[in-house]
Design goal:
Radius of gyration of chain B: 19 Å
Helix content of chain B: over 70%
Distance between the termini of chain A: 98 Å
CATH architecture of the largest domain in chain A: 3-Layer(aba) Sandwich
Number of strands of chain B: 2
Structural class of chain B: mainly alpha
CATH topology of chain B: ABC transporter involved in vitamin B12 uptake, BtuC
Order of helices and strands of chain A: HEHEEHEHEHEHEHEHEHEHEEEHHHEEEE
Radius of gyration of chain A: 24 Å
Strand order of the largest sheet of chain B: 1-2
Order of helices and strands of chain B: HHHHEEHHHHHHH
Distance between the termini of chain B: 47 Å
Largest sheet of chain B: 2 strands, antiparallel
Number of helices of chain A: 13
Strand content of chain A: 15-25%
Largest interface: A-B, 44 and 42 residues
Oligomer: heterodimer
Strand order of the largest sheet of chain A: 2-3-1-4-5-6
Largest sheet of chain A: 6 strands, mixed
Strand content of chain B: under 5%
CATH topology of the largest domain in chain A: Rossmann fold
CATH superfamily of the largest domain in chain A: Response regulator
Number of strands of chain A: 17
Number of domains of chain B: 1
Structural class of chain A: alpha/beta
Number of domains of chain A: 2
Chain lengths: ~400, ~290
Amino acid sequence: MPRIARRTLMQLAGGTALALPALHTARAQARKLVFGGSIPLSGGAAETGLNVNNGYATAVKFLNEQGGVDIAGTKYQLELKLFDDASDPSRATTLIQRLLDDRVDFFLGSFGSNIVLPTAAITERAERPMVQAGGGSDQIFTQGNRYVFGIFPRATRQFQSTVAFFKTLNPQPKTFSVIATNDAFSKTFAAGIVKDCQAAGYQMIENYLLPEQISDASSVLSSIRAKTPDMLLCAMHDQNSLLVARQMIATGTNVGLLFQGLGPQLASYREALGKHATGIFYSTYWDPRTTWKDPFFESAGKFAEYYGKNFTRPIAYHVAAGAACIITYVKAMQAARSIDPVKVRDALAATDLETLYGRIRFTADGDGDAVAMGPSVGQVLKGAGEVVYPAGGKTAELLWPVPAWDKKG
Amino acid sequence: MLAVQTILDGLVLGGLYALAAVGFSLIFGVLGVVNLSHGAIVMMGAYLTWFIWHTTGLDPLLAIPPVMLVLFGFGYIYQRGLIQLAVDRSSLMASMLVTFGVALMLRNLLVLVFSPDFKSITPGYAFSFLRIGGVTIDLVRMSALGASLALLGALAWVLNRTRIGRVIRATAQQELAARLCGVNARHVYAVTFGVSAAFAGASGAILGIVLPFSPPDEANWTLNAFVVVVLGGVGSPSGALLGGLLLGLISTGTSQLIGPAFPNAMMFLILVLMLLVRPAGLLGNAFAASR
């Protein structure tokens, strides 16, 4: 029988004594569930980035206040490791790589397809899941990624419900023009608009592509005044939307229907246009008045109430979408009874649940199901954003036809 | 009629570019410093105007004088306290890096103070327009052009007709000779920087009335100023005006004739061509003759 030398025994005992606190710490750390990522808190995408960030933070704060989450009999406190990527994709990729080096297993998305696209490529290679509420470009979901899940449907599918709404209008519009900016999301969103509108029988007059950042849209608006469509459909980010709307008003450029995918959701946009904002249409994915039930917050309304108590920033649908990312993650972990990234990924792919944000169900490619998670149609009425379609989620009666700029009161 | 509208839109846009660039041009011409924080100072002007308008309800055009005054002080201290130090201790290149660093700090300071959300200045007349024949005139943009021309004219008058203007020109042309005549060159440089910052602030105020803005826009306005100076020439209001108007016309003309996606591409193509063919700009360097 082999004998253990006294020195070896002492070394083993000493080593074990030293390792015990470390093991204890490791166990204590294992009870923390870390979600990493980058988010634009400064730079061009910061306005919406802050909303997504606040959504993540709200859900984590709430769940921790409830004592954490139970996964396979173990309680976990949630922790966010989110860093400001300054709306810069190259900075975001560096941050994500650093988080991977720090052994973060679960990722949340940044805001903006141009940032989500390269960061998702890194987490995909590392086989770490990313659930995100900031990237809708088709490219994110058509490259065979298995670990990337989006709360929004891919951009080219985001307009289907809006076209269905157009078909309900009386008098019925016949023609449309599109203005898009040259960025990953807006271009693909515009492609979806053109495809869906033409499929629905609307005739396209012009499809304008502008630079990513606009300081002047006068030439395009001159062209629109010369060849006026019944519907002008804008695929661009908030600040550009406001600029186009302002210039339309200031040049008396009237169209029957103005739709701006992003912009009118924001209070700052509506305040800037004042009474002129009345009647402008937009996509909206969520409203605090909806009746969705949530496994943790109970309802959309209670989520909005909790958010209001903890944050001064006005609530927006991106806040709810951010919170839904955390809820979806936690429910997937509970379903998988594990925090193994591969098992969680499989559970995410099989997700089908009702949350404060609505029904969460992903396509085989990872983007939000276009039917379950597609947008409602909003309209600015009396200075506020209201849902006017579909009928089930309506918060106000539609204003149609929309009066000309100078007739709005 | 579309051609007339395009030219008019180009001139209005060009007026904004010109005013936003004149400060950059003056600093480059007199001090030889490429001020990469110029756009950030433009944004400071926009935010200060927004703040005054938002809190007091004062018309944004009337807010221009106090904004100019504040930014003159800021520019004076910035030059004497930071840029002059960098130039003394190292080189003009160092001053360029310093201004780049300051631009980043100012951008983040604006985010910290005003949030990253975009702002918009919309006085009662913000959406007024005139239609003459088939041509539409956006009155706010037109008034912005008027204010730009008035301010550029005032700067030209100061530089050409006043004592301080003569001193600035003299210092820019021959610093040593100016010193021998008793000119305090450091003070003159700081005054020049202050004047440039004041004009950048005024352009920020006017831009704020015309466009929504947010802190990251500063980089665009520095870049635009650079292109305007390369086009028009260094150091003079007339160079900035010519460069600005040309840039505006190029922008709207390209948008109308080639496609709205291409104004930036055309702008940079012309920038490269100008740097190859006539690097001092169409009107040359206003202060180069005696150097």
